[in-house]
Amino acid sequence: MSPIGGADGTIVVADLRKRYGELQAVDGVSFTVAEGEFFGILGPNGAGKTTTLEIVEGLREPDSGSVLLLGEKPWPRNPRLLPRIGVQLQASSFFDKLTAREQLETFAALYGVSRGDAADMLDLVGLADKANTREDKLSGGQRQRLSIACALAHDPDIVFLDEPTAALDPQSRRNLWDVLRVIQQRGKTIVYTTHYLDEAEILCDRVAIMDHGRILAMDSPAKLVRGLDAPTHVMLAEGVLSVEQAETIPGVEGVNADGVSLTLSTRTPAPVLAALAERGALDGLQVRTATLEDVFLHLTGREYRA
């Protein structure tokens, strides 16, 4: 397996640029993805995630820069790469009036894949019991899983997923996480975009955080969070301690009372928790450390993006 982030990665992107009129959608993007890696591209609306993904997939021509997939250039459209990559787009389109099995068998037939292998893919995504159900009768989560199954029908080496869990309920999202874990365990390289920072933190080996067409940070979620040097927040039920008492605890950098809870900010949580234990103030205590969402907001800001 190639070293993660190495120059000999399964995907190598160098100084990618794409402009639409006055908008610089992609502005000097470079990254590599190793074989078997789960790589996430994160960013607010309009950050350039989808355009970057489409260029890497060979669906869109860059203005400049280079992309290599498995040692091949994806643009102009490269027939040698098509059997080795699977693509699931934001908006999935299916053939009218076909069942889940028929949809998958139709996609598989385009690549010469047997019906038996297609049936195995339905089982992989948990749709074996819906094989004879028409696509338009499936739930949103089931349609997303069918879309991923179609992208995997020909057993590609690299799978591109553009917001695969968008608009799904929490249960469907978590079910899909299990599917994505199984796909990676099969040795597939996964590149995906998402607005759900919690799932990126759980699923991804590395993430690139984009905004205004540029990569602002790129590393494993754990390393990005550690690099933020954000305080830990210790939350107590209102009335357990007064603000004045909390402010005297060594290591507490700030105290906030909102009428429901008392929140202590600290970069040295161990002695603060020990002091709270001595005061008998641990009942109902919650500790919140920094997350990938904190890193994301620190880098991209908090303003609303339409």
TrEMBL record:
Pfam families membership: ABC_tran
Q: Does the keyword Glycoprotein apply?
A: no
What CDD domains does UniProt report for this protein, alphabetically? Answer: ABC_DR_subfamily_A
GO BP, sorted A to Z: response to antibiotic
Please list the coiled coil stretches: none
The GO cellular component terms are: plasma membrane
Describe the family membership recorded for this protein in Swiss-Prot or TrEMBL: Belongs to the ABC transporter superfamily.
- Can you say what this protein is called? ABC-2 type transport system ATP-binding protein
Query: Which organism encodes this protein?
Result: Streptoalloteichus hindustanus
